[in-house]
Amino acid sequence: MISPFVIFFASILTSNMILSNFLGMCSYISVSNEYKTASGLGKSVTLVMVLTTVINYAVYRFLVIPLGLEYLQYIVFIIVIAALVQVLEMAMDRFLPDLHIKLGIFLPLITVNCAILGTTLFMVIRDYNFLQSLLFGLGSGLGWWLAISALAAIREKMAKNKLPPGLQGPGIAFIITGLMALAFVGFSGIFPIT
Q1: Domain spans in the chain, listed from the N-terminal domain onward
Q2: How far apart are CA 77 and CA 85, in angstroms?
Q3: Cα dihedral 177/182/185/187 (nearest 10)
């Protein structure tokens, strides 16, 4: 059995949802122009990832498996994710209206962020227990937040410099992401995860 803390650190560094699995790239590229907005989305994704991992763990273990509904697991997981995102969006609209406006369409699109569904599916495929699932969800969210915040900080800094027209926009974002992924590969072997 893999230690839950190894799973936690591996999901941040060596098995990062963005930099190793390339899950959740749409909002990662689109919302990474400004650090504050990217960090807000990173926090939202982390919160949703942790909550959905915990709830989907319970739903899978205590409802889907006992009722023999494994063939419906994708639908059940997506319903849980959609419900949590809806609650998060209403809370953010009420308590953080500026961030809610800045995130715009990308906030409800957290529902279809494949990094969140991927975290739940990895948890099921790898047969994690509750603590492993919780720390995997938290680590995956923090890793996603780290990646989008780092890209946004770099892009903000680069916006003050002149870039060739072909590198402006998504082009440079993909190059930076590739370089960040190479840097994170350097952590491979420290926290092996399967």
Answers
A1: 4-185
A2: 12
A3: -90
**3-class SS of residue 165:** helix
Instruction: Give me the percent of the chain exceeding a pLDDT of 90.
Output: 45
Continuous H helices in the chain: 4-12, 25-30, 35-59, 73-95, 97-103, 114-125, 130-158, 170-185
Tokens (6 digits) for 146: 């780290």
Which tokens go with 174?
Answer: 């993909």
Question: Taking the CA of residue 90 as centre, how many other CA atoms within 13 Å lie in the half-sphere pointing to its CB?
Answer: 5
Residue 62 has which token pair?
A: 């205590």
Cα 156 to Cα 115: distance, rounded to the nearest angstrom: 24
Q: CA torsion 158→164→170→174, rounded to 10°?
A: -80
3-state percent helix, strand, coil for the chain, nearest multiple of 5:
75, 0, 25
- Would you give the DSSP letter of residue 61? I
Tens of pLDDT, residues 43-76: 888 989 999 999 999 999 999 999 999 999 999 9
Distance CA 141, CA 179 (A): 20
Residue 194 near residue 6 (C-beta atoms within 8 A) = no
Q: Which residue has the tokens 């098995």?
A: 15
Report pTM: 0.88
Tell me, what's the pLDDT at 169? 75
